[in-house]
Structures are given as structure tokens and as C-alpha cells.
Fold this sequence. Notes:
seven-stranded antiparallel beta sheet
Amino acid sequence: MAGFNNDIVVAQTGMRIGDTTISSSEQASVQFSDPGADVALLIRNTSNSANSRAFQKIQSENADCWTQWTIGVGRTWALGIDQSDSNNLRLTSIASGSSDPSTGTPYIIASSNPAASPPGILFPLQIVHVNTSAVGGQVQFEVKNDDQSNPASDAIISARVGLNAGATSGNPFLSLAIENITEVGFALDNADEDALKMMIGAGSADAIVEANIFEEVTQEGEVTFPLTPCFLAFLSATANNVTGAGSLYNIVYNAEIFDQNSDFSTATGVFTAPITGRYSFQFGAQVQGLGPLNTNSIFRIQTSNRRILTSSLDIGGPRSSLNAYVMNGSCIIEMDAADIAFITVIVFNGAANTVDIGGEATGLFMITFFSGKLEA
């Protein structure tokens, strides 16, 4: 063994530094003070032949094995085998003054048994970040199974909560976000019979916000769309003397059963499309006070883009014994955002506008109605 520039060099195979037995309270140290330079422990095999390896080996007969890093007297990091935890490999952080790495905060735990449950590598902390800036590139987290020989060779990303989860467990989440702009969350709601809820809006990336749910799927596979425009309105009182001699009347459906997304106005009877799409509508009206002179009529839906005629007939002929006739229509129409849709009726050839549009107060027996929803 020879000293060279503050180095300790082992120049012969089998030579050791410190053959002395060390008690539990003793340490073997390589210590130098070299201001402005490094102090390094180098293990090097200078042979160029195959299988001429160099490695560091730390071995204990029946206890932990650790390598530790400390700057001064501050926090220590340790990497080692924890004998009390099935000989798993651990990366831990130890508070200043502590001497037992196994009691530190675990950051990574690698199972020593590939058949263990769960096998592989564990990250016990609450959050694991893959965080970098890749200008013009991508930051990826990939789970890949390269096997092509077995149809059961799956690749799975899993989010789990609890053990045999009950009503007091949390909710597993998948979140997508454009920082400080848009948040989207996918979650199983443990408090609502494990329904799958998809949300968009502030707070949706890490919490179930009922007002932000745009799709919900029950465990039975039933699907609802709570934010999709959908309404059912009706006429709650008869509109008297509105047509009959050729006057056009825009029916004001002045009461609602529901109005999901609040796109229908009971003040005007007009639906306003919140986004561009294809909308389906169903509508009906009981026309009352008819007479034999009312030989023509028009019933149609009108939108910003087009008018669709759904009925045109000699309405006085097939009128009931109560001088009434029910007109109905339905269609699917393309609409742009902010386009409107409403229902119009015209009855012709009467001596005066004495024809009414019938209403019903409760909505339990609707005779004049208007409904619609966003389809695609």
C-alpha cells in the first residue's frame, strides 16, 4: 500500500485497508482536508481484459446494509437494504442527529422479491413529479409492455384508494390541466356508489365538483350528461285570440319542467344555442276555437338558419267536437353558437283572429309543449 498525492492506493490483489475488527461503535474512515479540491474513493480495475470488473460491496451477516450521504451535520440521505422490511432496497431521508436510516422518510422502495405483492418499485410519498422544461419537445410518462406473444400482456396505469374501499375512502383521480387555465378530472366517486364522473372547470383536477360534471357513468353503465343543453317547456295558460285570420303567432312557452344549462327563455319562448352543433327538437300545440272557415294552417319551427314546416292542412275540417286540433312536429337542425329556435303557428281564412293556443297550468297534462337537446 502506497500513498500518492493524498491518495491511498491498493496496488495488489487481495490487499485490504484495515483488517482490524471494528466494534459496533467504531468506524473505518478515509479522511483528508484538501481545500478547493475533491476527496474521492475510487475503485478501479486497470485491466482491459473481459470480465475484469470493479465494484463496491457492502455486506452484513444478519442486519441492514446502507450507504449514506451527509453534508456537514445536516439531513442525511441513505440507500440500503432494510432487513426488517423483507430486505427491500430503500432510499430514505434522515433528520439531522438520527443514526438509523431505516427510520427515515422513504422516497423509493424496491422489492427484493419479484413475486411479492405489490412487486416492483414503490414511491411512498404523496406526489411523484416528472417535471422538466422541454422546449419544442415532449415530457412523457410511459408504461409499455413490449411482449407481442400473449394477448394477456397488458400495460396498465392504475390509480387506487383504500383497501377494500368503503364509504370513508377517497376517490381515485386522473387529471389533465393547462396550468392556470383549464382543469379536467376523471374520478370514481366513492361517496356516490363509485360512479365515474368527468369534470371540467376550476378545481376539477383534484376534487369532485358537482357543478363541473359533464358526463357521469354509473356502475350499471347508465350514462348522463349533466351539462349538455336539454329543456322541456310548456304553455301554462291559454293564449286567446292569437290567430285565425292569417296572423302569425310565436308561441311563448312560459313554464319549464327543466332547463339544463339555462338556454331556454320562458319570457320569449326562444331557445338559444350555447355552442355550434346539431340539435333535436320536438314540439306540439293544441289549436282551439276552430271553425269551418279555417281551411288552411301552418305549423313550423324557425331558427336563425332556416324554417322547417311540419304541418300544413285544412285544420277546420278534422277539428274535434270541441273545435280543437293538436299539431306536432320534430326535427334535427344544425345551429351555430348564439342561433335561436322558436315555434310559430298561423291559421287562415277566419273572419277574425279568434283562434286560441291551449295551455295547462300544472304541466301534468301538457297540451302545448316545446323540448330540445344537443345531439352532436
